[in-house]
Amino acid sequence: MRIKGMAHPPLSSAKSDAELDLSQRDFMYLHVDGQIVSASIHDIEVTPSPGKLPPKIRFPSGWLFVPEQADEVNAYLKKHGQKGLLGKLESNLTAILVSALLIIGLTIGTFTHGIPWFSQQMVDWVPDEAHETLADYVLKSIDEEWLLPSELPEDEQARIRERFYAQVQSLPLTKFQPQLEFRKSGDFPNAFALSGGVIIMLDEMVELAESDEEVDAILLHELGHIHHQHVMKRLISSSLVSATVALLTGESSGMIDTMVGAGVFLMQSGHSREAEREADEYAKASLITLHGSSEPLAKIFERLHESAMDIPEWLSTHPDMEERIEEAREP
């Protein structure tokens, strides 16, 4: 039995018409360009192709043969015990399912554990200038698209800043000195931290607080995010995902815009439950150091919880607020 196809010489992209002689049980004979190339079936290398595509047969001498039709060659190889990995998988449903589950598991593990772990390792290597530059870009972006200038009196802003900065001096050092900014959103009470130590306090949050200590609690919570570098860690994670997609698709343009956009999104969408708990613990410990009690944190959380009752559930970034209130009051 002879199979027609194309043959490629060793280390060459040239090709010639050829025939593969399968008349012998244990040997193959390739007839090409007036010469005969032979090899034992056990010495050849078979690269299977998916579906009905013909396999590629490589001889020890380097010649490569690609048959025109796959069926006869595949039947011969199967009969004589030559079967590639892909062919084995195609005939083994269990192996296919296990392989698929393994790939899915590795993919999920990469995104749920691998990337967060790598982000944790990378964050300390990010230059301070990168934190500050990114914060400037993000602040400029949200000022243009979302936030409004603060309407708090200048003397009130100065008083809150002075009080906060004085308290920071009594606490353990953070990587970045905080920079407190005031804005108005015309929306829900909120405050958030950017990379580089920038904290944004909205007028609505100041108005919600009923004491200076409650304002302290919110600012110390945001300082906790800065202390743990939550913003940059999440941004690194997001950028790693984007970079992975860019490598797979070959599209790497606009990475700076992507990072700024990710920074805005992360700022608006809130932090993970673990990050919020770490920031809560930082605020709680700081309040006890400064005021002897963490009750102001529980109080402002209660007010935030009440004000959030009218927010649709899909907009709420802190569905575990009742649990956080209880933890704020625990000794």
From TrEMBL:
Keywords: Hydrolase, Membrane, Metal-binding, Metalloprotease, Protease, Transmembrane, Transmembrane helix, Zinc
Domain of life of the organism encoding this protein: Bacteria
Gene3D superfamilies listed in its UniProt record: Metalloproteases ('zincins'), catalytic domain
Domain Peptidase M48: 156-330
Gene Ontology annotations of biological process type: proteolysis involved in protein catabolic process
InterPro entries: Mito/Outer_Membr_Metalloprot, Peptidase_M48
Pfam families: Peptidase_M48 (PF01435)
Known cofactor(s): Zn(2+)
Any one GO CC term of the record: membrane
Gene Ontology molecular function terms on file: metal ion binding; metalloendopeptidase activity
Cofactor info, note text: Binds 1 zinc ion per subunit.
PANTHER family (alphabetical): M48 FAMILY METALLOPEPTIDASE, METALLOENDOPEPTIDASE OMA1
Family assignment from sequence similarity: Belongs to the peptidase M48 family.
Protein's name in the database: Zn-dependent protease with chaperone function
